[in-house]
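User: Hi! I'm a student and our assignment asks us to look at how structure tokens line up with a sequence. Could you show me two examples?

Assistant: Happy to help. In each example below, the sequence comes first and the structure tokens follow. Example one:
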Amino acid sequence: MSDEQQGNDDTVTVDALMAPTGLSDDAQQDSDASGLVGIVEAMVFASPEPITQKQLLKVLDSEPKEDVLAALEELKRRYARSVGLQLVEVAAGYQIVTRPELHEWVRRLFRERTSQKLTVQALETLAVIAYKQPVTAMEIAEIRGVNTTGVVGTLLERGLVKISGRKQVVGRPFLYSTTREFLDRFGLKDLTDLPKVEDMADALGFEPSLAAAEQMPLAEQAATPEDQEVLEGPGDEDEDEGQA
């Protein structure tokens, strides 16, 4: 055989590269599953907010449901071994985030904007809403012992709380509840993940504590003036801070 013929025989064509590799059925299945894991990972990573299992199944409707769920479970196992990132379940969805112990290093890279930090008064008000929801502005004020109108407005503006209805009493004051953004921000799967009310009260230094407030009778008051102030804007938190 001539050198030219030998060279032609050794040439690898595009068709040959694209042809099946002769993998066994099990190996082919593993390869397919691995590819699906990568797709799920990319979707979780690219989603601007936690992506739910329902959303994954909807986008991957051409894949068997059991394969998508298996890929998700495999992704969980892989990230359990990751040293820098973790796959967490928050707000009924999945998100890839940095590990909490590395927060300080990440913070140095992305300097936190102080304007986005919540004041102690805002955190206290948010805790009352989280544990007592749905709750009115007057009920929040009774528990905290100060006017919280400005703080509630700030929480509404940040998307951490929402108006979830009106209480069926004289004046029909607004009822406030937490949002999905609240769950996402604080890394909670749902409201059952909230710490014990006593622990939260001690941490925030409530007077009276939230735990005691659980036993306090809440007056049925028509808080429409406070509701109007909330709707007009977040207002100034100085009044709250001065009395706290």
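Example two works the same way, sequence first and then tokens:
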Amino acid sequence: MFTLGTRAKDFRSLSYARALHVVGLALQMRDLKTFDLQADDREFRLKCGYQKPPCSTTVELRYTIDEIESFERENLINRDDLQKVVDFLSLAEVLRGLGAYVDKKQARLIRISNNSAKIAAGSVKLEYESYDGTRREETFALSSIYDICVRMYKARGETKTPPNLWTAPHFSGAKV
């Protein structure tokens, strides 16, 4: 079910949508509301808070590929209501939607944050390295993320979901 084959275990070859959904579920379980997630080839490093953004008191977390894969496996096993209504503004769905956005661009995730005084309340800042090596920053209002999530949800209904995290066609030549 979750075989990795001979691929290297790093984030350059995974589906950001699926991995970030797992991270979002973990943050929701801890009731964390703010996040500043930084990605490298082997782990996601987060500074999170229990208050709404901006938040100065943070909890530091790290999630490796193995932890994310294990948590996803556990979540799939424990899913009891597959017909439940999806909350596209939940932290898990917001992160999944932005991960899908990065996947679609075939880019490398650098950072996602909702904890900056430089962005509007309710917005999320996304940083990624595009396929051609250009570093890009975009800020998304929750309404834009909602639209991304709805489009992704509709597209997923039309195609079968891949069986594991290691399906997105990312480039591997990016420097961290």
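Here is something you could point out in your write-up. The mean pLDDT is 79.
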